[in-house]
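Consortium newsletter contribution from the modelling node. Members have asked for a concrete example of what our holo predictions look like. Here is one, prepared for the adenosine-5'-diphosphate complex that several groups have been discussing at recent meetings.
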Amino acid sequence: MQFEDLGLDKRLLKTMELWGFSTPTDVQASAIPVVCAGKDLLASSKTGSGKTLAFLLPALQRVMRSKAFSRSGPRVVVLAPTRELAKQVYGELRKLLAGTQYKCMLILGGENFNDQAKEFRKDPAFIVATPGRLADHLEHRHLTLEGLELLILDEADRMLDLGFAPQLEAMNNAANHRRRQTLMFSATLDHQQVNEIAADMLKEPKRVAIGFVN
Ligand code: ADP
Ligand code: MG
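And here is the predicted structure:
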């Protein structure tokens, strides 16, 4: 399996070549075509298996290829359980977006709330955030999720273990667009709360489990 076989845009294939990534990892090979087809996804695979690009590549493809639903608010939101993990995803996204017209923003707990509120005025297409802080901004109406096209929950099991279920629900309700696509990544699919949240937030998801008996 090659990146060329996954239905990705030429510009993204070029980027992978520049990064020296010749073949997709298993989770990328399984997840990318599902996401490009517009389907919801519930995926698990172990740490270090390349999940970040499994969602960032098709997310960027979707944004490049389609017109925005709405003129304001992010088109893609990625939620991660901790500041550290959110920063890692953001770093990878920044590299992918270099040379494109799209802006991204990192929203973390523990940083100045009002400064962050002002940054939303730049209207970034992509937001990477920890759930607590983004939920606070939503509550203060600093942003709208009405135009959200893609909601991505990275390490969903850890977010739930950290008690973020109410914030995930709030995000789900604020971004209740019928064309919204939702992706959930988890270390395990054998997690009761993950399956509950998935039942609530995903529409007929395709399940992908790499390296586990499922
Ligand atoms: P996970 O989220 O599954 O723990 P990451 O997305 O953080 O894994 O990826 C782990 C490492 O693998 C990163 O350094 C990333 O740049 C690298 N990587 C991702 N995809 C590929 C690929 N197709 N070929 C080679 N390395 C890759
Ligand atoms: Mg990861």
